[in-house]
Amino acid sequence: xxxxxxxTLLGGAAAVWPLATRAQQPAMPVIxxxxxxxxxxxxxxVSAFQRGLAGTGYADGQNVIIEYRWAxxxxxxxxxxxxxxxxxxxxxxxxxxxxxxxxxxxxxxxxIPIVAIFTTDPVATGxxxxxxxxxxxxxxxxxxxxxxxxxxxxxxxxxxxxxSIIAVVLNPTFPPSAQxxxxxEEAAHALGVRLHILHASTDDEIEQAFxxxxxxxxxAFTIAVDPFLLxxxxxxxxxxxxxxxxxxxxxxxxxxxGGLMSYGxxxxxxxxxxxxxxxxxxxxxxxxxxxxxxxxxFELVINMKTAKALGIEVPVSMQLLADxxxx
Length: 327
Prior knowledge:
alpha/beta; Rossmann fold; 2 domains; five-stranded parallel β-sheet; 13 helices; elongated; disordered N terminus
């Protein structure tokens, strides 16, 4: 064989060999991230999820691909988005933004593992068989957010003791809403206050709810847990300021935006825990063997600037209880 032909042959082999090697490498696993919320207002929790995932050795774009699907608070879109991820196909679905995402993911697949965040007891809603042994293809963390409604009502009454009636802004399209109302009514009875329930599942209904609060001269309100109402936090806080009515919220995102007070979970911690669970499932653990986690971090946040604007004097005892006081 001539020297020039040999060089050409070897050069061609060198060019082909890396391609063949790459072709034999296994494809990166794909996570389907299904959320009731929107990308723009979820940056903080997405970062927390990625931190948790990184703790198990996975980084988006390096050794795992994350496909995001956002329902933009339109719960009826979740079924189609979940089915789209199943067809992709993905190795795992992370369903966040409460029960609507988890229900849609479970309806879409009985085989692809699902890691989800719940606001209520997933056993009571039929999503899992038990907390210790979930069964099926779904596990996750229950943030107990809805079960904290009575505690939020109690804290609001302490801050506004003259409130004999309290408005509740509640989204009736949110699956746990019936239980939320029941829990709130029981808590109100124990506190000796009356509730004025206001339904809000659209922007117009949110505005109508605050107009009703003003017309009825209701001295305080609370926002029931709901992803849609969370995505509208800027609007809600602005309406509360315009109508000069004190409110209690379920996440610190509200007082950070100018709301009066919140009591609830450290949601960034929840997403980080979910990221760690997702990594464990990708490494081969079975969701059936991963118990439903429960939250360990709760936080009371008070915005003192808003309290001053409303003419509310926050007791020192409550300030000392707060995990964060915004001056």
